[in-house]
Amino acid sequence: MPPEEPHQIEVHLDRLLAERGITLADLAERVGVTPVNLSILKNGRAKAIRFTTLSALCRELDCQPGDLITYAK
């Protein structure tokens, strides 16, 4: 099996949390995911995200998906 290529998706969860004054633990509880899984996403180590999780994050952070993740060229 060939090695996995690194992705070029940047996650801006730190910035959004700081702007909204929400802790990672609080957001995890509101969204219904574990703080560990949210931390993996925040640190750019996630390999996937469910649309239901993305929708919940956008709802709780009052943002669009493009505010949360971007493609880095």
CATH fold type: 434 Repressor (Amino-terminal Domain)
List the quaternary state of the chains: single chain
Q: What is the overall shape?
A: globular
Structural class: mainly alpha
CATH architecture: Orthogonal Bundle
Which parts are unreliable, with pLDDT below 50 for 5 consecutive residues or more? Answer: none
Order of helices and strands: EHHHHHE
According to DSSP, the number of beta strands is: 2
Proportion of helical residues = 40-55%
Strand order of the largest sheet: 1-2
Total individual domains: 1
Termini separation? 26 Å
CATH class: Mainly Alpha
What composes the largest sheet? 2 strands, antiparallel
Roughly what fraction of the amino acids lie in strands? 5-15%
Mean pLDDT: 93
User: How many alpha or pi helices?
Assistant: 5
SSE layout and pairing:
Blueprint: E1 9-11, H1 13-20, H2 24-31, H3 35-42, H4 51-61, H5 65-68, E2 69-71
Antiparallel strand pairs: 1-2
Helix pairs in contact: 2-3
Overview of this structure, please?
Helix content is 53%, strand content 8%. With 73 residues, it is mainly α. The protein has a single domain, classed as Orthogonal Bundle (434 Repressor (Amino-terminal Domain)). Strands 1-2 form a two-stranded antiparallel ribbon. The chain is globular, with a radius of gyration of 12 Å. Helix 2 crosses helix 3.
